Amino acid sequence: MDTDTWTTVDAWFTDRLRPRDDTLVDIVAAGAALPQIQVSDLQGGFLSVLARALRARRILEIGTLFGFSTVVLGRALPADGHLVTLEASAEHARIARDNIDRAGLGDRVEVRLGQALESLATLAEEGAGPFDLVFVDADKQNNPSYWDWALRLTRPGGVVIVDNVVREGRVTDEESRDPDVVGTRELTDAVSTAMAEGRVDATVLQTVGSKGWDGFLVATLT
After folding, report:
1. Residue 194 belongs to what H/E stretch?
2. Per-residue model confidence as pLDDT tens for the chain (222 residues)
3. Residue 135: which of 18, 29, 54 has the closest Cα?
């Protein structure tokens, strides 16, 4: 099966289940100058369904970009819910804040500017959390460290999702020195260790579609 077929099937389901409303169309347009590496509409739908199934009230997102997934997750929160999203780029954060306000979520979504590892340490010092859902979609070489923080900041029974773990299959290449592949492999080893210790239950879902061949790592804390 080729990528044209994946994309066609993605579009067929998207048209029926996750069509973009005017706000999401405007959000994508506002971020047109930035890398178009946000989750697809169907992947965003997966995040929304999971957040609602968890009845999530507190969500942490690591990696904001221009706020597409932030808005999708923010919409899944109850009126008194709260989402913290971490972004290293001032320009990305500015556009994301505008998009969050455009979606009417400024009262429940907080964008923190700075290196994510520093922001995570600050959140811990502030006693933030525990979070019901953590979505990791940032620089892949730091995924092992993001995973460690997610374990600290997520409640028992909460869920951690890490995006882009398949990397067009390159994750299986033991000789690769690509920092994104190395980071993903180290992340997977860390999750495997946590499973062996009885701290989490986890799996990986391979995905195909408009974003190519990739996948989510999904873990729940025991």
Report:
1. helix 179-196
2. 678 899 999 999 999 999 999 999 999 999 999 999 999 999 999 999 999 999 999 999 999 999 999 999 999 999 999 999 999 999 999 999 999 999 999 999 999 999 999 999 999 999 998 999 999 999 999 999 999 999 999 999 999 999 999 999 999 999 999 999 999 999 999 999 999 999 999 999 999 998 889 999 999 999
3. 54
The letter for the amino acid at 81 is: G
Please tell me the pTM assigned to this model: 0.97
- The class level of CATH for 3-221 reads alpha beta
Domain parsing of the chain, residue ranges: 3-221
**Number of alpha carbons in the 13 Å side-chain half-sphere of residue 205:** 12
